[in-house]
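Why should sequence recovery work at all? Because a backbone constrains its sequence more than one might expect. Tight turns favour small or flexible residues, buried strands favour hydrophobic ones, and helices have their own preferences. The token representation captures these environments compactly. In the example below, the structure is given first.
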């Protein structure tokens, strides 16, 4: 394996190789229509944990509902979550709005360092926005770029080690003009040609320079196993109303969901819990099971439909992980409430 002490020299002519290729092969994506900082910023946040194809439609909808930073700063939180629905990782939307309030007051930052001071923005996103929207020579090194460079240079060390090294080595390679396009050309090559499982080396503009030509570099660091959590959900229904809670801790904190206890319960235990919480006149439907995988946690859920025969106050039904259930009519839930996908499957059971 090559250690490449002088990576900067090895990367110096990347712009000459990549920019012509990018001009010919770049995908037509909605956030590439112009380099307005607001548009670039929204796209980079959406793409942090969402695939390009999934983000496209959401991006267009989001931009037409909230076309500028002031509209985002002033958007009611529940409407913002509704617009974010389907993208997951709602903390991104929350951070985006906190940052939008700061930007609406002070104006857009220009440098990567200034962008990084905003909530929800790390090295990669800061580098991407500053180079694409402001032509700063600031590298944006994500998994795609690490893969391209580790294969190009034959450096198979693990991603975390390579990240900082590649950011430093790339900085002097930035051209005098078209810096944003250079950033995007590297990302684009990783996303469309130098893909994880089957790189298309014969179509690659870097083929003649590539040390590995398709080796499965870089090494992946083993991820720690996900935390498994058993959970019981109660789907309270009362005619045309359903009862929702807000998560008070852990993953999805602050989001709407169904009443949940982080323990498994059979039907007998579930009924006993409801009786002890003072719920009367209920019938328990057949339970349904569902598994939801987050990045670090996995929920194994069992949901019990709970049909109530008369209007019932559920204020005494308590859980350590959510607020007591509150009644909402089903149409309001469908129209106005953003229900994370970890809970949305339950709607069919209510
Ligand atoms: S030649 Fe192949 S392995 Fe090397 S950078 Fe191009 S696509 Fe990746």
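From this structural description, the recovered sequence reads:
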């Amino acid at each position: 394996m090559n250690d490449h002490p002088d990576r900067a020299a090895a990367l110096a002519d990347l712009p000459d190789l990549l920019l012509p290729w990018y001009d010919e092969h770049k995908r037509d994506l909605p956030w590439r229509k112009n380099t307005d900082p607001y548009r670039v910023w929204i796209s980079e946040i959406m793409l942090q944990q969402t695939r390009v194809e999934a983000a496209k439609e959401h991006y267009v909808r989001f931009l037409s509902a909230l076309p500028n930073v002031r509209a985002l700063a002033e958007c009611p939180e529940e409407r913002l979550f509704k617009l974010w629905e389907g993208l997951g990782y709602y903390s991104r939307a929350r951070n985006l709005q906190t940052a939008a309030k700061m930007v609406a007051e002070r104006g857009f930052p220009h440098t990567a360092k200034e962008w990084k001071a905003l909530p929800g923005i790390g090295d990669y996103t800061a580098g991407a926005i500053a180079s694409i929207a402001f032509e700063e020579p600031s590298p944006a090194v994500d998994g795609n770029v690490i893969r391209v460079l580790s294969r190009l240079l034959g450096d198979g060390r693990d991603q975390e080690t390579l990240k900082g090294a590649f950011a430093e080595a790339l900085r002097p390679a930035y051209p005098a003009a078209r810096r944003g396009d250079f950033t995007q050309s590297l990302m684009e090559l990783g996303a469309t040609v130098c893909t994880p499982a089957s790189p298309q080396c014969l179509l690659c503009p870097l083929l003649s320079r590539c040390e590995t030509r398709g080796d499965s570099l870089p090494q992946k660091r083993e991820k720690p196993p996900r935390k498994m959590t058993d959970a019981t959900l109660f789907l309270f229904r009362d005619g045309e109303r359903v009862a929702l809670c807000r998560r008070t801790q852990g993953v999805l904190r602050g989001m709407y969901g169904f009443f949940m206890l982080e323990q498994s319960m059979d039907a007998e235990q579930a009924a006993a819990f409801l009786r002890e919480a003072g719920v009367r006149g209920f019938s328990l439907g057949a339970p349904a099971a569902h598994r939801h995988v987050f990045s670090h946690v996995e929920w194994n859920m069992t949901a019990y439909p709970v049909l109530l025969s008369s209007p019932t106050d559920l204020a005494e039904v308590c859980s350590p992980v959510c607020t007591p259930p509150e009644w909402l009519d089903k149409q309001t839930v469908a129209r106005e409430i953003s229900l994370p996908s970890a809970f949305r499957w339950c709607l069919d059971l209510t």
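A few observations help interpret the result. The radius of gyration is 24 Å.
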